[in-house]
Amino acid sequence: MARVVAVHGIHNTYGSPPQMAAQWIPALQGGVRIAALTGLVPDVDLADADVACVFYGDVFRPPGKYLGDVPPLDADDVDDGPELDLLMAWWSAAARMDSGVAAPDARTLGPRQSARAALLALSGSRFLARTTERLLVWGLKQVTDYFTKPAVRQAVQERFAAAVHGDTRVVVAHSLGSVVAYEALCAHPEWPVTDLVTLGSPLGVPHLVTHRLIPPTADWPAVERWTNITDSGDFVALRPVLRDVYGHRVRDIEIRNGTEAHKVDRYLSAAETGAAVATGILTARA
Question: Could you tell me which residue, 137 or 56, shows the higher pLDDT?
Answer without folding.
Answer: 56
